[in-house]
Design brief:
The protein is of the alpha+beta class. The chain is built from 16 helices and 23 strands. The chain is globular, with a radius of gyration of 33 Å.
């Protein structure tokens, strides 16, 4: 019987070991692409530079198995124009085989997919970075260009989570920076966030090993400074520089350090000799005490438990990692209720009947519709120029639909079938603000308390888009026709996510395609294509002055003095007669202090220097505080003197996609844009 137990134990142990070893051989996933940057300098096919680049990429690929995960080299004569410098950096926790797979993929996709015939190229994957160019960058700390990403999920306690992130990654900086010369400049750490281990923080910082301790320290701290801008309150974030990178997540995204093997457990003590027993050396195996069998069984149970935990834990973590690494658009599966069939929308709008048409904008026509359950909706049938595929469109809508604020028009769903792309909005009872503001028959219905409430509501909605929403959105077409009013005259900003869905051609901080409406665009945006949150502040200032005066900025022109609305308001402010600006329909009932404060705020918002314009938080504070001291406004941007005082050519509008310094390139009624990178 004892021999039988021994045989089964040996067989079982062998099977367990085989299963355990097989678990360690997890299948290697393909490298996950993050971003790429190429400059405009090109080389010709089959040129010397091309040949040197091929040699360089071959050298990088073949050296991707070195222990440090970093390799730098060059090919070509140093005194010629055809020399190529290159390097790769793999994430420090990865095995050499994973590193080589990533470098090989990057080398192939760089020349075939992302940056063909470009002399300077930088590619980031989740697993590695590859860069090459015609200028040496070895032992040089580069913080530009930079890229950053954030996890779409918000932390349950953003402020405390931000603090833990800052403390953790900052604490990792000296660990990575002070690594031995030639070693990996890498540091990782796991922290418990909620005290129970249910929410955790995993952080990783890394520099290229060629950097000095000082340069590595400086590079990582520069990356950390960007976290509040990109990843405030998010469960994860990444900042990528050419010379360093940082990342944190609420899940385990790196491999735990296995460089130090676990300590060998001490051998089991020999079984005690019980009275009357015969020593094992005498061959009496049948006298082994029963407690040894119990010990063996317990050991097996413990081993089974460990193997089971490892198996299911790795499966769960691998599945979670895959979910987290996928594009956020995959969340479409969790919000199927947002999708409507084309037949449903066609029936709701009576086949898009002209009698149901509410209006037409730069992005398409809008119809009133009634769903089968009786709910009234506004249906925007988008024009066919978005250039997006169906899945991409769905994913964008899902993101924008998550933006919920009482001063934003709510997106209820979408339809994407074939060439049809349709958005379904909540139906807002009253029309847009311009219908009440500029129509003489309706102006009497918009008393001062209503106007003041509308100004406050618009400011709150813009603050949410700029600072509090999951996506940072710069509207870029804030005007009265894009503000709808509900049954209680509460303002709701419309078209705040349209340009995100339509993929307006942009780069960080500037755009080659100026969209918006003349008279509401900030000068730095209209002339140079530079946009920021202060662009919306300028538009808000114009809108505030329109609400106070009842005059439309784009139509206002005082023929007697040759003045436009902003110069008209400025003259009365300068002359100490601001109340003369008030809409004549409000002269019998208004708050003098509120009117003057709104004019003051409006003028602060339309100053020419964007840095002089107040932030949205300050604007709301100024609107609500009667004791807050406000700075004196400067002359508005686009300020025009009377024609008798100043001879200057009129401003022109151009439909060109390339803005010139003396013309305005615009497309009327094309709305918002999402700023993909910095959060200010």
């Amino acid at each position: 019987m004892i021999t039988m137990v021994s045989i089964n134990l040996n067989v079982f142990t062998t099977l367990v070991l085989i299963g355990f070893l097989s678990l360690s051989r997890t299948s290697e996933a393909a490298p996950v692409y993050s971003n790429h940057i190429c400059n405009t300098t090109t080389f010709t096919q089959n040129s010397t530079y091309h040949s040197n680049l091929n040699l360089l990429l071959s050298s990088l690929t073949s050296n991707a198995t070195i222990d440090t995960g970093y390799y730098y080299t060059s090919t070509g004569s140093q005194d010629s124009n055809s020399v190529v410098y290159g390097a790769f950096l793999c994430r420090g926790d990865l095995t050499s085989s994973v590193c080589q797979d990533c470098v090989t993929t990057a080398a192939t996709e760089a020349v075939q997919k992302y940056c063909p015939f470009r002399k300077v190229t930088l590619l980031w994957y989740f697993e590695c970075m590859l860069r090459y160019g015609n200028v040496s960058f070895f032992r040089k700390m580069d913080e530009s260009p930079s890229v950053y990403f954030w996890n779409p999920l918000n932390a349950t306690e953003p402020k405390r989570f931000n603090q833990l992130v800052a403390e953790t990654v900052t604490g990792l900086v000296p660990v990575a920076a002070n690594a031995e010369t030639g070693a990996k400049k890498l540091a990782m750490k796991q922290e418990i966030f909620d005290g129970y281990g249910l929410e955790q923080l995993f952080s990783l910082v890394q520099c290229t090993p060629d950097l000095s301790s000082t340069d590595c320290d400086q590079c990582l701290r520069g990356a950390i400074e960007l976290l509040p801008k990109c990843c405030d309150g998010r469960k994860g974030g990444r900042v990528l520089f050419p010379s360093c990178n940082i990342r944190y997540e609420s899940y385990l995204f790196y491999n735990l350090d296995t460089s130090t093997p676990p300590p060998t457990p001490p051998p089991l003590p020999p079984p005690p000799q019980l009275p009357g027993s015969v020593p094992r050396s005498q061959g009496n195996d049948e006298q082994i005490s029963s407690w040894i069998i119990v010990a063996i069984v317990v050991s097996i149970a413990i081993l089974l438990s460990l193997v089971g935990c490892l198996f299911f834990g790795r499966r769960a973590m691998k599945k979670y990692n895959v979910i987290q690494e996928q594009d956020v658009g995959k969340e479409i599966n969790a919000v199927e209720s947002l999708q409507f069939s084309f037949g449903t929308i066609e029936a709701a709008t009576n086949k898009f009947s002209v009698h149901n048409k509410l209006g037409k904008g730069g992005f398409g026509e809008v119809y009133k519709g009634t769903l089968p359950d009786g709910q009234q909706v506004a249906v925007k049938r988008l024009s066919r120029g978005s250039g997006q595929g169906g899945e991409e469109f769905k994913n964008e809508v899902v993101l924008v639909a998550k933006l919920q604020h009482r001063n934003l028009v709510r997106i209820l769903g979408f339809c994407s079938e074939g060439a049809e792309k349709i958005l379904i909005y909540e139906f807002v009872q009253n029309k847009s603000l311009d219908h009440f503001l500029y129509d003489s028959g309706n102006q009497v219905n918009l008393d001062w308390p209503s106007r003041y409430k509308i100004i406050n509501g618009i400011a709150r909605g813009i603050l949410y888009l700029h600072h509090d929403s999951q996506l940072k959105i710069i509207h870029r077409d804030l005007k009265a026709s894009n503000v709808l009013l509900d049954g209680e005259m509460n303002p709701k900003i419309a078209d705040f996510g349209m340009a995100r869905i339509f993929r307006v051609d942009q780069t960080q901080g500037n755009t080659r395609r100026i969209v918006g409406t003349y008279g509401y665009m900030a000068p730095e945006y209209a002339i140079h294509g530079l946009f920021s949150v202060k662009s919306d502040v300028y538009s808000l200032g114009v809108l505030i002055l329109e609400i106070v005066t009842g005059k439309k900025n784009t139509n206002f022109y005082n023929s007697d003095n040759g003045e436009y609305l902003l110069s008209h308001v400025w003259r009365h402010w300068r002359d100490g007669t601001p109340l003369e600006l008030l809409d004549v329909n409000l002269r019998d009932s208004y708050s003098r202090s509120e009117v003057i404060r709104c004019i003051h705020i409006g003028l602060l918002c339309v100053q020419e220097d964007p840095d002089q314009r107040p932030k949205m938080q300050k604007i709301l504070l100024m609107l609500s505080s009667y004791s807050l001291s406000m700075p004196s406004p400067q002359k508005p941007a686009f300020f025009l003197h009377s024609r008798t005082d100043l001879n200057m050519p009129p401003m022109t509008c151009s439909s060109s996609d390339q803005p010139a310094s003396n013309s305005l390139s615009l497309s009327v009624n094309e709305a918002s844009i999402t700023e993909l990178y910095p959060r200010q």
